[in-house]
Design goal:
Oligomer: single chain
Strand order of the largest sheet: 1-2
Number of strands: 2
Number of domains: 3
Radius of gyration: 32 Å
Structural class: mainly alpha
Helix content: 55-70%
Length: 176
């Protein structure tokens, strides 16, 4: 039975159909975005909302709000993951080790591989930041960086040679 709206017009009958199980809705979108935020993993987020991979990318392509929420969740999740990895690289992880007599001790293990990977990952961005702070143009070319380092070494070498010559001359009473 249809109801009558306040303005006297007949209100539409409520739909008796259940939402299709393979369609995106607000609850599924929210579940996906929340899980993506927590895990930074699209596959886990899909499991949480019960949708398929092909449907996911079709929905992303056709829904700008969903796309923006996805990007924001991924950005936030990535930042949290990055912070966690940086913390592990700096402070290590505590691991339990069984020694000869069966005693269990806790040691702190710092992963050189993780640290080096993070350094490699951020090297270019940090170099640009440092160059901007020093008001020095950033050298994109590795050969230019290498040339600058070699020039600095040469200046240090010349400076040390001059100091050494002055020290020798001072010991013999000569002027340099």
């Amino acid at each position: 039975m249809t109801g009558i709206a306040q303005d006297g017009a007949q209100a539409p009958a409520p739909s008796r159909r259940k939402p299709a199980p393979n369609r995106w809705n607000d609850a599924r979108r929210n579940a996906f975005i929340e899980e993506l935020y927590e895990t930074c993993c699209v596959r886990d987020a899909l499991k949480a909302c019960g949708m398929s991979m092909s449907g996911l990318y079709k929905h992303r392509a056709s829904n700008a709000a969903f796309r923006a929420d996805w990007d924001a969740a991924l950005d936030a999740a990535y930042a949290m993951l990055e912070d966690e990895m940086l913390d592990r690289a700096r402070h290590g992880q505590t691991q339990e080790v069984v020694i000869k007599d069966g005693e269990v001790i806790k040691i702190r293990v710092i992963s050189n591989r993780l640290g080096l990977a993070l350094l490699r990952l951020h090297h270019e961005r940090v170099a640009k930041i440092r160059a901007a702070q020093a008001d020095v143009p950033f050298a994109e070319d590795a050969s230019a960086v290498r040339a600058e380092i070699m020039a600095r070494f040469e200046r240090m070498h010349v400076h040390r040679g001059m100091k050494k010559a002055q020290a020798q001359a001072g010991a013999t009473g000569q002027d340099v």
